[in-house]
Structure formats: C-alpha cells, structure tokens
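Quick check before the chapter quiz. The format below is the same one you will see on the exam, so make sure you can read both the input and the output lines.
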Amino acid sequence: MLELDVHLTKDHQVVVIHDDDLYRVTGVNNKVKNLDYDELPKRFRSPLQVPFPVQIGEHIDTENLEAHIPTLEEIFQLFPGVPINLDLKQESDLLLDLTYDLIKKYNREDTIVWGSFRESTCSKAYTKDPEIAMLFSAKAIVKLLLFYYTGLLPFIPLHQSFLEIPVFTEESVKSLGAYTTSRRMRTFRWLIHNVLVSKRLFKHLNKRGIFVFAWVQNTDEAWDFCFNHGVNGVMTDHPTRLSKYLRERDLNASSKSEKDQLIKDSK
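Here is the expected output.
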C-alpha cells in the first residue's frame, strides 16, 4: 500500500505532497494553494530536508534528480493495482470532491482508504460514499478509547475501517528526555504507549474487520514491537527493508510451526 497526502493547487489540481508549505522540501517560500500546478517547483532541496532516524544514517541526494510534485491522477495511472492510503490534508470541500471524482474515474473505490485527522473532513467523506474504507479521525480515536476503557465498545457501531496511530516503544518513551524538554510531548507519548497501544483493543477491532496501522516505523526493533502488540501493518520510509524483515519473519514463523508439529508428532 502507498501512503500519501494530497493538497489542492490554485488552479484546482490535486497534488501529492505532505506539507502545505513548499519550503522544507523545495526551498521555495510559498504554499501549494497559492500556485498553479505549472508554477510548482521542479527541483527539490539537496539533500532533501526529510529526517530519517540517526541510526539508519540515510539521506536522499536530489542534486541531479529531475523530479516534480505529482498529481494524484498520475499516481493512479502509475500504480493501477496498488492500494492507496489517502490523507486529505486541506479542509476543503473542493479537494474532497475532486479527489472523489478521481477515485470514481479510475474505479478505485475498493482499493482506497481515505480520511483525515479532522472529524469534519471524515464526516463529509463518509457521507459522500460510505462504501469507501475510512480512517479514524483524531476525535473518533478519543471516543474509541473512551468506549473501550468504559466497556461500552462492543455495543458501539463503528463505520471506520482503519485505525492509524503513532506507536512509541517503551525504550523510545524513556529516551524522550534526551530529545525534548516538553512535558506535554512526553505525556503525549507516554499516553500513546500505555493507553492507545493495547493488544486487546487491536484484537477486538480486528474481529470487527478493522485494521490497525502504525506510523512511521523504520527499525527491526520497532517492527517487532508493533507486530508483537497486534498491529496489522506499519508505515515506513524503508519499504524494501521492511519487505525483507517480513519475509524473514514469515520464514521463522514457518520453521517454528514445523518444529512444533514435529514435536507434537513425536509425542
């Protein structure tokens, strides 16, 4: 699955980019919504100002790279069979309508999950087409936790299909003091680790056909933590490395299963 974010240009093109501001990635001090599509920068910063974990030690060299900010329609054309996770970054009815038109044009209703952290955007998207898989908004996540910890969740109808959340391991929570002095941020990550990351909750959601994704995880240790706690999938900056990890994990699981069966047969 491709995870991506969309914005709307001044001339109403749906483009794929995370930030609303172009400066971090391109060095151009302007916003996507202020420029026509043809006016968008054709060069990225070098090295690209997107942080990767220090322990990975990787960066993207874009000095001689010919690239552009793609439209959502280009992505649909380039990856016709690949499921796509769409985050509508702008609170815009027009962005929602144009995105939906593209989903219909390319028959993407069954291979799209869409939504936003904003409840208003998710509500409008669900009203437009309740058959398309929906993300939990931030407000919906808070309500989900309230219902879960009060024991009411089994009796509450849910129309969302994907719970997508940040996940922090115990080690990353403990090491926060070295990276931030913000008590609010430390509390936020502690709450995520101890309240939101619940194997029982995730199991309950899975039984109701709801998948749980963690963002963004880039190390074997983080992937171990996520999958051991019942997460169904992770978003990553390193899909090739994650694919290798999953293949090895499957092989190890198969070997363990065969070994257990041999022991059982011998008894």
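If your answer matched, good. Strands lie at 2-8, 14-16, 84-88, 112-115, 133-134, 162-166, 211-215, 233-234.
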